[in-house]
Amino acid sequence: MAESKITKRSEDYSRWYTDVIAAAELADYAPVKGCMIIRPNGYAIWEKMQQALDGMFKETGHQNAYFPLFIPESFLQKEAEHVEGFAPEVAVVTHAGGSKLEEPLVIRPTSETIIWNTYRNWIQSYRDLPLLLNQWCNVVRWEMRTRLFLRTTEFLWQEGHTAHATYEDAEEEALRILGIYRRFSEDYIALPVIEGLKTEAEKFAGAHHTYSIEAMMGDGKALQAGTSHHLGQNFAKAFDVTFQTETGNREHVYATSWGLTTRMIGALIMAHGDDSGIVIPPRLATTQVVIVPIFRKPEERDRVMQAVDHFTSPFKTAGIGFKIDAREQYSPGWKFNDWEKRGVPLRIEVGPKDLEKNQVVLARRDNGQKSPASQEGLAQTVLNTLETIQKSLFERAREFREKHSYRIDDYSKFNEILDGEGGFLWSHWCGSGECEERVKDETKATIRNIPMNAEREEGKCIKCGARSERRVIFARAY
Length: 478
Ligand SMILES: [Zn+2]
Fold this sequence. Notes:
By secondary structure, the protein is α+β, with helices and mostly antiparallel strands. The chain has 14 helices and 25 strands. The chain has three domains: 260 residues, BirA Bifunctional Protein, domain 2 (2-Layer Sandwich); 97 residues, Rossmann fold (3-Layer(aba) Sandwich); 71 residues, C-terminal domain of ProRS (Translation Initiation Factor IF3), CATH 3.30.110.30.
């Protein structure tokens, strides 16, 4: 087993990030530039994320389906903004089966076009609505600058595509999903997010408007964690999808689409990781607890292992994911370090001295705290501790975000903060695309979103001084 050294965050954040991924064996580079091999430890996190989200989608009436990877190129041309937005990054298949194809096939960068082409046959009447589908799949977007999990040429995601009779129904759906994304981020990834509306310049290509959740990473940069689009009637018009209303008229269908991707694993790493490696929130950890028995002599080994078997026997029924690391070729210290870099939330140490006191030692991954715990009722103690860890990871991330959030009314302060510790800059904006663009050119900061819950407040645009009614969030972003 190769020793992997992790660069300190303060030294080089971006190297720290790739070191953490290597140390925890989450992913590997692929032969094709920009692609990624997701290793079992990384995929296990994705599976946990899938389970949680999938449950929330199904609870709200959505069903899973699957649409093909290949899309006729002509489909993409049908929605003008959509093709303009995606054309530069699509991969196209021109040859197959040994000959040139009559019509080139696009490898899906997203599936609105093929899905709305299908919905034309499925939707005839208001009785067919709403149609609430989701699919779990891969998509390909030819990216020039890539980073493991955060931006890869091929990535995994879920994409929801719903059809509705009215604008209001579609709006309600877009917001319902935004709420699901927020709860998922906060309750599972322990990542506080800000819900808001994307600006015209930053919205999805082909959307009426886009909502996002935005999170702060450990270096003060923003990460768009999920998006929910109200597509209006744009795709229904492009693919001629109409329905008969209750009053007998024909109308175009309203649509939403929404997605959350494997970049959330990158978000998890950057939100909670430390100089020892990744820290996996308990609710997303397959191995939530690792038990490291400590012994020197064979008779100690037998006694310790017997106790381990005894106190872990209720773990399974309690739903605790655990591993017993009884490898004899490694020292306890080496094992502690090994599990720390893999981000296992809780470690249980137990040696001959602990047996005398009928106790174990619990070591928390999030803050390094060690404390004794009785072997009696240990399953419950472990469950409680995992909940405490889950909550304190969230609290710590929230405090970090608050500490790096600033109300800025002076443009000269902008760069000072961005070039320093970074963070979210809550500033007034007049609403003009020109001001947004100039700020982006001059500072590399974009408007992350217009927060939903931001209070109305009179002010002056940070760039041009024109009247503004609310603050928006500017930040540099991944
Ligand atoms: Zn302005």
